């Protein structure tokens, strides 16, 4: 099972580097329309078991020129007791392996929620339980290391 | 509001979709195209049929499911279709 182990970022938590791009499905539509494929956007993502779904900062979605293809209802501390509606976007996500010969974690068509304030908190995405559902995530607080196997 | 027409269509057609709970529906304007067993199949069909035009893919739930995020973030929209 491919995996990597990284240091827990002081004050930040289990943060990893990855890339977000247009979804594989949208890529095909762009190519068919003779339109350019936006470059992948490098991101810092916090692995967050407290997020039921993966969230991405609007700066990343803007850079990819995306429009919503979904809508979800979401509850966060900022919304209080009343759930809010968040636009959903289809993207691709790639998290490189620990070394070049290790397989990367790649999800070609992933629905993500748009969520502001992530960059202000030091990252561009929350890697939620929708992705963790396909992984083994180990957080070792005694060594300040975390492992993600997929 | 993004996908306003599609969301209104979803709401109006929801009673007809009760046997497809958990599946993913593809909607373009007021047209309900079909339901799919996976998100991937629905989004691929959406781009295949409607190219770069707006369309909606939504998981069918008789009672709307609420996502939870324990961090302080603001759900947002960046572009309007």
Can you walk through the features of this model?
The complex is a heterodimer of chains A (150) and B (81). Chain A has 150 residues and is mainly beta. Chain A has a single domain (15-134), classed as Acid Proteases (Cathepsin D, subunit A, domain 1, Beta Barrel). Chain A has three helices and ten strands. A six-stranded mixed β-barrel of chain A has the order 2-3-8-4-7-6. A three-stranded antiparallel β-sheet of chain A has the order 1-10-9, with no helix packed on it. By secondary structure, chain B is an alpha+beta fold. Chain B has helices spanning 4-13, 39-50, and strands at residues 24-28, 31-36, 56-59, 66-68, 74-75. Chain B has a three-stranded antiparallel β-sheet with strand order 2-1-3, with helices on both faces. The chains are: A mainly beta (150), B alpha+beta (81). Chains A and B meet through α1, α2, β5, β6 and β7 of A and α2, β3, β4 and β5 of B. β5 of chain A pairs parallel with β4 (66-68) of chain B, so a sheet runs across the interface.
Secondary-structure blueprint:
The complex is a heterodimer of chains A (150) and B (81).
Chain A: E1 3-7, E2 15-22, H1 24-32, E3 41-47, E4 55-56, H2 58-63, E5 70-75, E6 84-95, E7 105-116, E8 125-127, H3 129-132, E9 136-140, E10 145-149
Parallel strand pairs in A: 3-8, 4-7
Antiparallel strand pairs in A: 1-10, 2-3, 2-6, 4-8, 5-6, 6-7, 9-10
Chain B: H1 4-13, E1 24-28, E2 31-36, H2 39-50, E3 56-59, E4 66-68, E5 74-75
Antiparallel strand pairs in B: 1-2, 1-3
